Q: What sequence folds into this?
C-alpha cells in the first residue's frame, strides 16, 4: 500500500489538472473576447480575422493556465480524498503525509519546462503578431515605429540631438520622422528648434525655425527652414519585453545601462520567466501541504480562491516593485515563489 497509494493520488489529481487547464483557458479566452469584441464590431472585422487575432494570444493564455491549474487540481483532489477519509486510510497503512507529494514532483518539473520554453519563445512571438495584426489586419494601417527618446548622433564635426524621434512611416529606412527638441552643434554655431523633420531617404535633418548661437554668443532667429546632412538611419527600437524572446532579452540587457528603470524591467522579465518555470514545483509543496490538511471539498474551493488571489496579488505587484527599485529584479521575480515556499515549508513541518 505504501507504493500504490501515492500513485493512486496522482491518478486522482491529473484529470483535475487537465480540467483546470481547460477551465482557466476558457475563462481567460472569454476575457480576451469581451475586451476586443467592440473593436472587431467597429471595424466590421470578419470571423476569420477575429479567430486569427485570438490565435496569437493562445501561448500566453496557455502559460498561465498550466501554472494556476496546479493548485486547483491539488486542492480539489485532496479535498475529495479527505472527504472520503482516504487520507486516514493511507496514514493508517503507514504512508506519511508528505510521501503523497513525491509522485507529483516530476510532473511539476515537466510542466515548468514547458512553461519556460513557451514563455521564452512562443509567447513573445504570439504577442508581437497580436500587436502587429491589430494594425495590419484590423485597423488596415502600417505598424508604426515606436517613439525613440533622447536620440544623439555625431558625424562630420556635427552633433545631432533630439528629445524625441517619432516615425511618420512604417519603420523602414526610407521614411520621414518628426523631431522634437532639436539641437545641432556645428563648428559654425549651435542651432536649436522646437521641432524638425528627419528625411532618412534624403539623409537630411531640417529644423523648422528656431535659433542659431554663433561662437561669439550672438543669437539669431531662424526665419526659414535650415537643413543639415545627416547619414544615420532610422532604426526600430528593440521590441517590448513581452514581445522579445529570452535570447533577445539577454542581448538587450547587455546593452542597457545598469540601474535605470529600463534595465530593471528587462532584468525582471528575464528572472520572472525562470521563476515562473519553478512555480508549479512550489505549488506542489504549498498547495499539496495545504490540501493534506483539508477536511472536505467545501474548504478546498475556498482554499483555491484564496490561494490564487494571494498569488496574483504578489505576481502583479512584483513588476512595479522592481521598476521603481524597491526590490532588486531578481528578488521581485522570485517573491511569489519565496512566499509560497515558506508557507509550504511551515505546513510541511506541521505535517511531518
A:
Amino acid at each position: 500500500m505504501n507504493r500504490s497509494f501515492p500513485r493512486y493520488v496522482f491518478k486522482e489529481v491529473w484529470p483535475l489538472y487537465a480540467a483546470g487547464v481547460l477551465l482557466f483557458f476558457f475563462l481567460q479566452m472569454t476575457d480576451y473576447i469581451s475586451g476586443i469584441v467592440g473593436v472587431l464590431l467597429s471595424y466590421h472585422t470578419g470571423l476569420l480575422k477575429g479567430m486569427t487575432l485570438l490565435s496569437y494570444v493562445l501561448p500566453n493564455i496557455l502559460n498561465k493556465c498550466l501554472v494556476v491549474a496546479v493548485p486547483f487540481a491539488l486542492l480539489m483532489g485532496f479535498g475529495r480524498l479527505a472527504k472520503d477519509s482516504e487520507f486516514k486510510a493511507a496514514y493508517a497503512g503507514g504512508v506519511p503525509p508528505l510521501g503523497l507529494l513525491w509522485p507529483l514532483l516530476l510532473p511539476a518539473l515537466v510542466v515548468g519546462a514547458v512553461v519556460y520554453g513557451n514563455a521564452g519563445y512562443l509567447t513573445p512571438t504570439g504577442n508581437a503578431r497580436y500587436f502587429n495584426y491589430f494594425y495590419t489586419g484590423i485597423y488596415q494601417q502600417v505598424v508604426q515605429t515606436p517613439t525613440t527618446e533622447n536620440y544623439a548622433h555625431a558625424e562630420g564635426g556635427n552633433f545631432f540631438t533630439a528629445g524625441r524621434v517619432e516615425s511618420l512611416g512604417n519603420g523602414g529606412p526610407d521614411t520621414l520622422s518628426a523631431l522634437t527638441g532639436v539641437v545641432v552643434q556645428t563648428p559654425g554655431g549651435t542651432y536649436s528648434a522646437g521641432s524638425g523633420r528627419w528625411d532618412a531617404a534624403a539623409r537630411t535633418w531640417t529644423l523648422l525655425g528656431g535659433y542659431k548661437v554663433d561662437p561669439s554668443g550672438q543669437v539669431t532667429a531662424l526665419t526659414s527652414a535650415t537643413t543639415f546632412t545627416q547619414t544615420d538611419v532610422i532604426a526600430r527600437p528593440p521590441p517590448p519585453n513581452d514581445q522579445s524572446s529570452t535570447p533577445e532579452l539577454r542581448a538587450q540587457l547587455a546593452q542597457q545601462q545598469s540601474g535605470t528603470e529600463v534595465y530593471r524591467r528587462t532584468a525582471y522579465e528575464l528572472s520572472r520567466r525562470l521563476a515562473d518555470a519553478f512555480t508549479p514545483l512550489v505549488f506542489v509543496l504549498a498547495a499539496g501541504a495545504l490540501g493534506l490538511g483539508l477536511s472536505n471539498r467545501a474548504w478546498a474551493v475556498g482554499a483555491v480562491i484564496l490561494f490564487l488571489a494571494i498569488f496574483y496579488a504578489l505576481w502583479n505587484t512584483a513588476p512595479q516593485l522592481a521598476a521603481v527599485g524597491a526590490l532588486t529584479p531578481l528578488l521581485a521575480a522570485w517573491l511569489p515563489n519565496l512566499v509560497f515556499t515558506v508557507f509550504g515549508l511551515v505546513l510541511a513541518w506541521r505535517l511531518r
User: Anything to note?
Assistant: The first strand starts at residue 148 and ends at 155. Strands lie at 148-155, 158-167, 176-186, 189-199, 204-207, 211-213, 219-221, 226-229. The chain has two domains: 4-139+258-351, 148-229. The mean pLDDT is 88.
